[in-house]
Amino acid sequence: MKRKASAVWRGDLKSGKGNITSDSGVLKDTQYSFSTRFENGIGTNPEELIAAAHAGCFAMAFSAELGKAGLKPDSISATATVNLEMLPDGPTVTESHLEVTARVPGAEKDMVMAIANAAKAGCPISRLLNAKVTMDAKIE
Prior knowledge:
Elements: E1 5-10, E2 17-22, E3 30-33, H1 34-38, H2 46-68, E4 75-87, E5 90-103, H3 109-122, H4 124-128, E6 132-139
Parallel strand pairs: 5-6
Antiparallel strand pairs: 1-2, 2-3, 4-5
């Protein structure tokens, strides 16, 4: 399976602007720029998109792992925060931190935490990132 998105950038780094489009149409000429990436401008940026991908991927992986254990979650809420640092080699994504809340009726919390940790390690986006992946999980 392959998924595709494209970007077009016009101009220099600081004053230029770009657009990102995904084949699914969810992103269509979505604006990004230096200010949306390194400041607080309006629009998206690559790190935000990676965070969204990581949160979505983890939630699905966690649900799949719970299912393998015979457990069915009522809900899984995941937020990923991607950390972009300026290192000597240049800007680098150094960490993605997952904040997770899962409601899994009748499940033992320790078991669900072990499953969450397995999902964190096994999620395809976690494995893609050359960064530290951390997690805080709340099991209800």
